[in-house]
Design brief:
Keywords: Membrane, Transmembrane, Transmembrane helix. It contains 12 helices and no strands. The chain is mostly helical.
C-alpha cells in the first residue's frame, strides 16, 4: 500500500510539473506573440507618420517647383526689357517735357523692379526648398531611429519572460556566446558540450547546492517571475510603446517647420505678383513714351494703350487686396483647425501649453442640477426606492437589499430615474416617504 501511494504521489507530482512547464511555455509564447503584435502596431504607426510626411513634402515641393518656374519666366521677361533693344527715344531725337522726364525715371525704376522681384521670389523659393529638404531629412532620421527601436526587442521584457534578472542574459544567448568563444579556441582546448545543449548542469547534478536548496530557488524564481509579470501587467502599461514625448516633439517640430514654409511661401508669391505688376507697368510706360514720340499726330494711340493697360494694372491691385482680405480669415481658421486636430491627437486634450485644463473645462461646464435639494432628490430617486408598479427588486443579493442607499443597482431604470428627477413637491414627498 505504501509503495502504491508513493507511486500515485510521484505520478501526481510529475503531472503537476508537466502542467507547470506547459503553462510556462504557453505564457512564453503568448508574451512573444504580444511582442510581435506590439512591434507590428508600432511599425504601422511609424509608416502612417512617414506617409503623412511624404504627402506633405510632395505637396510642398510641387508648389515650390511651380512657383520657381513662374519666377524664372518672369525673370526672363525682365531681362528682355533690358536687353531686347526697345527703349524710349533719345533726348537728342525728342524734346521731353517735365512730365515725360518724370515718366522716364518711373520707367527706369520699374525696369529694375521687374528684375528684382522675380529674383527675390526665386531666392525665397530656394530657401524654402532647402528648409523642406532639411525638415525631411530630420524627420526621416527620427522615424528611422524609432523604426530601429521598434524592431529591437526590449531586453527587459525578454528577461522577465525568461524569469531572469534584467542584468543577466538568457540561456540561448549564453549558449551562443560560449559556442562562439569556444570556436575561436584550438581544437584541443575546446570544452565539450554538455547534454541537451544546456549551459549549466542539471538541477540534481549541481555539487555546490543541495537538492532542497535548488528546489527552493526554483520555486523562488517562479514566484518572482509571476510577480514580475503581474507588475508589468498592472504598473507598466506603456512598456515597449513609443515614448509619447518623443512623438509629440517630432510632430511639433514638423508643424513648426511646415509653418515656417507657410511663412515664406506667401512672401515669395507677393514678390512674384509685384514682379508681374512691374513688368506690366514697364510695358505701359515704355510703349506710351515710344508711341507719343514716334506718332505725335495720333495722341489717342498712346493714350488708349497706356490707359487700358494702367486701368488693368490698377484693377489687378484692387482684386489682389480683395482676395487677400476675403480669404485671410478662412485660411487662418483652416490652419488653426488642422493644427489643433494634430496637437490633440498626439498630445491629448489636457496639455499644459494649450491652455485647456480640467479646471477650465469644469469652470465652463453648465450645471445639471440647480440646487442641493435637486441633487438629493435625484439620489434618492435613483438609489432609494424600487420601480413603480412592480413588486420585484433590482438588487443582486440580499446584502445589497439591506444596504439600499449604497447599493449599486442593475438595469436602466435607475439611469432613467436619474435623468428625470422629481419636479413637484408631492412627488418629492412620496420619494421621502418611500425611503
Amino acid at each position: 500500500m505504501g509503495a502504491a501511494a508513493a507511486t500515485m504521489t510521484l505520478g501526481e507530482a510529475i503531472g503537476i510539473v508537466q502542467q507547470w512547464h506547459s503553462y510556462n511555455q504557453d505564457q512564453l509564447w503568448s508574451k512573444r506573440g504580444y511582442d510581435i503584435g506590439l512591434q507590428s502596431m508600432r511599425i504601422d504607426i511609424l509608416n502612417t507618420v512617414r506617409e503623412e510626411m511624404r504627402d506633405q513634402v510632395t505637396v510642398i515641393i510641387s508648389s515650390l517647383d511651380n512657383l520657381m518656374v513662374v519666377a524664372t519666366l518672369m525673370l526672363s521677361i525682365g531681362f528682355g526689357f533690358v536687353v531686347e533693344g526697345t527703349f524710349p527715344p533719345a533726348e537728342k531725337d525728342y524734346d521731353y517735357d517735365d512730365l515725360e522726364r518724370q515718366l522716364l525715371i518711373v520707367y527706369a525704376v520699374l525696369a529694375a523692379l521687374s528684375l528684382v522681384f522675380p529674383l527675390a521670389c526665386m531666392m525665397l523659393t530656394i530657401a524654402a526648398r532647402f528648409e523642406v529638404e532639411l525638415c525631411q531629412q530630420d524627420v526621416m532620421g527620427d522615424l528611422q531611429k524609432h523604426l530601429l527601436k521598434a524592431l529591437q526587442r526590449d531586453q527587459r521584457d525578454a528577461d522577465l519572460v525568461q524569469g531572469l534578472p534584467s542584468s543577466s542574459r538568457s540561456d540561448d544567448e549564453e549558449v551562443l556566446h560560449r559556442a562562439d568563444s569556444s570556436s575561436r579556441l584550438p581544437t584541443a582546448r575546446r570544452p565539450k558540450l554538455r547534454r541537451n545543449s544546456r549551459s549549466e548542469p542539471l538541477l540534481g547534478a549541481r555539487k555546490d547546492k543541495g537538492f532542497v536548496k535548488g528546489i527552493r530557488e526554483a520555486v523562488k524564481g517562479g514566484v518572482k517571475r509571476q510577480l514580475s509579470n503581474f507588475e508589468a501587467l498592472f504598473f507598466e502599461e506603456n512598456v515597449g510603446h513609443i515614448a509619447e514625448d518623443e512623438v509629440r516633439l517630432l510632430a511639433e517640430g514638423l508643424l513648426q517647420k511646415v509653418n515656417y514654409y507657410h511663412f515664406l511661401y506667401p512672401i515669395a508669391q507677393l514678390f512674384l505678383w509685384c514682379g508681374m505688376l512691374s513688368s506690366v507697368l514697364v510695358c505701359c510706360v515704355l510703349l506710351g513714351l515710344y508711341y507719343k514720340a514716334n506718332y505725335p499726330e495720333t495722341p489717342w494711340m498712346w493714350r488708349s494703350y497706356s490707359g487700358i493697360l494702367g486701368s488693368c494694372a490698377l484693377g489687378c491691385i484692387f482684386f489682389f487686396f480683395w482676395i487677400k482680405f476675403r480669404l485671410r480669415t478662412k485660411q487662418i481658421q483652416v490652419r488653426q483647425k488642422s493644427n489643433d486636430i494634430v496637437a490633440k491627437t498626439i498630445s491629448g486634450i489636457y496639455r499644459e501649453d494649450s491652455g485647456i485644463t480640467p479646471s477650465t473645462l469644469f469652470a465652463n461646464a453648465e450645471p445639471v442640477f440647480g440646487s442641493d435639494a435637486e441633487v438629493e432628490a435625484a439620489y434618492r430617486d435613483a438609489f432609494g426606492r424600487p420601480a413603480q408598479g412592480s413588486q420585484e427588486t433590482d438588487y443582486e443579493s440580499a446584502e445589497e437589499e439591506f444596504h439600499q442607499p449604497y447599493a449599486n443597482r442593475r438595469g436602466s431604470k435607475a439611469a432613467k430615474r436619474l435623468l428625470w428627477p422629481a419636479t413637484t413637491e408631492g412627488h418629492g414627498h412620496l420619494e421621502t416617504s418611500a425611503v
